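ugh ok so i messed up the first submission bc i forgot one of the chains. this is the corrected input, ALL of the components this time, i swear. 1393 residues overall. if the numbers dont match what u have on ur side tell me asap before i send this to the collaborators (the ones from the other lab, u know who)
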Amino acid sequence: MRSSRSLLAALAAVMVVLAASPVPARAAPTLVQISGTGSSWSANALDNWRRNVEQRGIYVNYDATGSTDGRNQFRNGTSDFGVSEIPYGLRDVFGGSDLRPDRGFGYMPIVAGGTAFMYNLTIGGRRVTNLRLSGEVIAKIFTGAVKRWNDPQIAAHNPGLTLPARNIVPVVRQDGSGTSAQLTLWMSKQHPQIWNAYCARFGKPAPCGITSTYPFRSADGFVGATGSTGVSGYVGQDNAEGAITYVEYSYALNARFPVVKMLNAANYYVEPTAANVAVALTRATINDNPSSPDYLTQILDGVYTYDDPRVYPLSSYSYMIVPQRIEMNVTEDKGFTLASFANYFLCEGQQQADVLGYSPLPINLVRAGMEQVRKIPGAPQRNIGIENCNNPTFSRDGTNTLARNAPQPAACDRQGPTQSPTGTAGARQETPVKAAARCGTGGANPRPGGPTPSGGPSAAPSATATGDPTGGLVDPETGEVVDPGTGGGGEQVAAVPVSLDGEGGWRLRHTVMLIAGVLLVGVLFGPPLLAHTLAGRRDRGDRR
Amino acid sequence: MTARRTRVATLVLGLLALAPLLAVPPAAGPARGGDGAGSAVTVPGRADGYEDFSALRITVSQTRDLTNQAVLVTWTGAEPTPRNRPVGVDYLQLMQCWGDPQAPDDPLGLAFRETCQFGLGLPQPAMAQGSDAPAGKNASRRRLDAIAGYPHPDPAEPLPADAQMVPFRTVGGARTPDGSPRQPFGTKPNPNVPGGTMDQTDDDVLRAHFNEASTNEYPYALSAADGTGRVAFEVQNAARAPHLGCGAPAGAGPRRCHLVIVPRGRHDPYAGTDVSTTAAVHGSPFSLPVWRHRIVVPLDFRAVGAACSLTQAERRTAGTELVAEAITSWQPALCANSGPVIGYSAIGDFEAQNQVLSPSAGAPGVVFSSAPVPGSEPPLVHAPVAASGVVVAFNVDGNLDPYASGGEQERLRGAVLSQLRLTPRLVAKLLTQSYRRDVSGIGGPADNPNSIKYDKEFLDLNPVFRFWDQTPSATLNGLMTPVGNSMATRELWRWVLADPAARAWLAGTADDQGTGRPGMVVNPAYQRLFAAGAVDYFPKADQTCAKESFQDVEYTNCTLDYRPYAGSLGEAALLTLRADSKGTAVPLQTINLPAGEQPKWTRIARQEPGFRLAMSVTDSASAARYGLHTAELCAAAPDAAGTYVATDCRSATTAQMTTALSAMAPTEVPGVVAVDPERARATPGAYPLTMVTYAIANTAAPADARRDYAAMLRHAAGPGQTPGVAPGNLPEGYVPLPQPMRDLTRTAADTLGKATAPTTPPPGGEAPAGPPPAGGPPTGVPATGTPPSPGPVAPSPAPSVRPAAGTTLGSAAGAIRYVLVGALVVGLLGGVAGPVLRRLAVRAPRNRP
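and heres the new structure output, hopefully the right one now
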């Protein structure tokens, strides 16, 4: 009985929905399945939106094959929409410039986020979670100019850590990637000498500029991987120590790994949280010339240098490339569906952004996005409006709520002799720092009531550390105890690096070196001496 | 075959996203829901014209109360699909159609055929090479070109003589052109010529309504040596396929649609000659002499319900993917009658726990995790909402050696295998790149088997693989695993490490591969990873790479290229269905590179239907969604003859997962239980990898939010536990929670709904259905010899403090460092030998008399 009643209710609701749909002269557009391809930077957000609109009757397929493929498929008409971090037609000295499609299209911002530097580094067996770097050092790492973790340039930003003499393994995307484009665009603008010098090694003239296809040689210690899951999967391996990659923040959260706190123009080291990205993107300018082919694409120069202390400099957003004409299998029904989907994710869907490791789009970008939605054929014009948009950044006075309420960084995160122990991204546990680098009582110790988003795991490290049956940390090659067992103690961690590649302690390789040295001496001096001795004996013998 | 067709074929491979296009049998998992039960239908084939399909019996598992779901199509009495020639004779084609098959004015079904979702020319299984391939149109709606022996055009065909295809007609009345000059296909921009245009193809025209990613057409369903076959066919209702309109209001009730099966025979449809060894039966299934054999099964759909409002704000939830299928089913039921719209984001268990404790305004009010969150600040309630299991799902066809007879196994040639047995040690072998083929460029310990089909332990438990195709590549392209960290992964590792044989093997003890053969050992890159117990991710630790150089640049193909992660549990299941590892391998493709593009490694091809051997770690709900079988997890020991014998096999069935629910261990949060591999193993008939997912709610949330979340919990404890495919029910792959757990959830809902101020967690007490722990400590996982059991609390030992005993490879100097020593030793010997020889040479003549 109950089910038949709900059936009736459902039927009635269908009638209501049908009756309420905008009815132009033609039959009302219906929701149909749509398919898209593109960016893996924004795939975590898109996948969750797709899941949540199913209950609203919208079925969307999405294949995260990379931005370059997304642009190609949209151009060829094999997907209904594309997702990319960069527009068509940029000059790319490595990947080649792609043609603008010969079809009506527009760029629509869909989600913002920070391109994070996820790394895998331990000191004395404890994961480092509070590493800080400047943009210049980051650029040098990804161009092979800084090769070791104990490089003085890295140490200068990390006064609280005793960094190990371990090789840095930069992990880069080997497929056509919008994330690579974001990184190289930033390097080409902010550190052109470093980037141009690197490009020159691949025979490319300065200025080198943006590329989706990151150039690298594995002989230089670089590792290439495919897709965001590929690079974050590599760095996330237990034995990938020393590795660092660039990837959207959400991937580091999922992998439970830390990200670099990056130095901004206000001399603070910050993490790409939703709030810090939101603050940064208030300085993003967009191409607002509707007649420009790159209308609505981002100009980030102001973001890189914005001197608010909360800014994460490598903040950006990605675009959906949407059709604007009925052609290449775009029908009014598909346009209607795509517009309904877009209306969802520009507003309600942005509520999920923070949870997933992205940052919600601010009002200016949502407004611009809605302009593009209106141009999609079949878009339900009257449903698109900023008034009903449940976007978490909106406020009554038009400012960005998220940016306005963004917390200021701790004083301990300011460039200087102190270093905050607070963890980052998916690894919130603290990394103790040297006594000399500790901040005041408020900074180094957990705040009363627990550190905000990290309450859960903070209890665990000590528990598991004391549960460690070996009671000490043993260097795998020497068998020496390098950390005599106080596992969780702070000072130990800061003071005793387990220097794994090439420093500290006598090891097999040193024995080999010594043998080699002795042998070399033997080879140089042995034969003449021997010959001399033998000759001398013969001489004596002859004399006899 | 124009370049355009090749391009489309390539795209098809890349695009297929959802349609379960490949034949798989029903999951050996929980029973299907009660709705539509008893609506299975069996229909016979007919003898007609030159073909005799009268022995064919096709069964459709469910034909009433359908929604968007998979139905199982199985058959017997078919002519086996030949495996020694290209697919061209003796197979079936399946499609969904919305028209009336018995319209009085349409006795030949000519109008009916226009209503079928079919014809994108999906790729044909390669099967075998040969000149007797069909003329390339068998999966399309196209008219045949002139073919020797076939009348051109068919005089009985009522379409215009110059029509290019059988048009498609939507339920709304739109009809595609047929491609004749009076109804041309139209043009599209030419991507290679700016401003230029080119003619559309029939596929382009169809893609306005359905495309490779959305269609459910099944153009090549193959029959095994015993004449049977199985396909999980995805039926689509009006919400997913509005152009078909199935289940939408139509007259008195929801629109009825039809499953059409077109059996393809082995005779020239016009001359009647047997072409099974010489040619193929050419043409679209819609060509008249083929279409006459069609078998039609009515499909009755449940009325398509209203979708949730497009503008209503969501109540946000987030958490483990284990609950994703259930939430997706519950969402539309919850929003009905002005209920809350629930938003759900799939994130890891551990991040979910951070989120529920986060004071941020954007944080979800409810998270889902298999691990409880201890502590009382903020006050939390824990409510069990779903029970499912971690499974090893597989998609394996009986790919028997084509040059040998498998005796009694012969009937399995080409058939879908429904049983596969694994042990903790076999799973450990698969997860540690210990088969040599799982290392890029083929590496790992030199005496280890090349792949699982050469492993004695596996062969003893699964004897059919003794008769497998001997080609080395006819094997598993790795056990696919999801990326990231989760409790589900941790439980799998705990189960592996709870087995003494697996634990010893992971620590370096060789297994027994039989007399005269060296035992198999763990890949050394993994040997020390589990010293501290279970980890919560799937390591891919072997850093070996295949390398090739091109134009002075070295390219590497490493583990993550060769055996990449799946993006999620759901994707792992989908890739298993497709038998697609996503990996790349040697050789480097350097020929015909587009300008400016770097060379790429060769994509490891998807395995063909009839030849598949794919496996993944996923969850029981995802496996059920794609109709995958799941492996039995066994204990095994050698008998007197040294043959491994399975002694205790457990599978992810409703009964065994339910049994496991009663054998869970309490955790430090009162009332919250979690899986304990030791205890599950000691309980007969309990599936050891059963997981309970909890909704964890923050009682400090605003009152209206708490009310909505409480409604969700009440639904989860009520209709949400009724198995079924209807919106709001419990999807296949989950087991209904026992009553005590549901009571706990209702209590939690009351607590949450009523809480006006921060409250304490709900009254806890005993583990709901389980016997009290046998005197053990409340949190401990007892057991001697097991790895130190980390508390069930998520924050794990892995990321924070680890013994520095992991393998810590530096930059690869490797054996090269010894070359110098070697050279110097040789040099020194040479240096010493020189003068000595000279001395001897000088001395020798003197000694002569």
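quick check: Chain A has 19 helices and 17 strands. that seems consistent at least. The first strand of chain A starts at residue 34 and ends at 38.
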